[in-house]
Write a structure and sequence with these properties.
Elements (H helix, E strand, L loop, with lengths): L1 E6 L4 E6 L29
Antiparallel strand pairs: 1-2
């Protein structure tokens, strides 16, 4: 499940992905092209 949280007045979006091993993942969307990672996930920034 991808759950976006939008802060329209700042023009920012936060995405949270919760992994469920029982689902196939067919409804998941890829991260946006301008995604920014923070904290321990910064190593995934391209």
């Amino acid at each position: 499940m991808n759950s976006p949280s939008r802060s329209w007045y700042l023009g920012q979006e936060t995405y949270l992905k919760v992994v469920n091993p029982e689902e196939s993942g067919e409804t998941d969307y890829a991260a946006p092209s301008n995604v920014m990672y923070c904290g321990p996930l910064q190593k995934f920034q391209t």
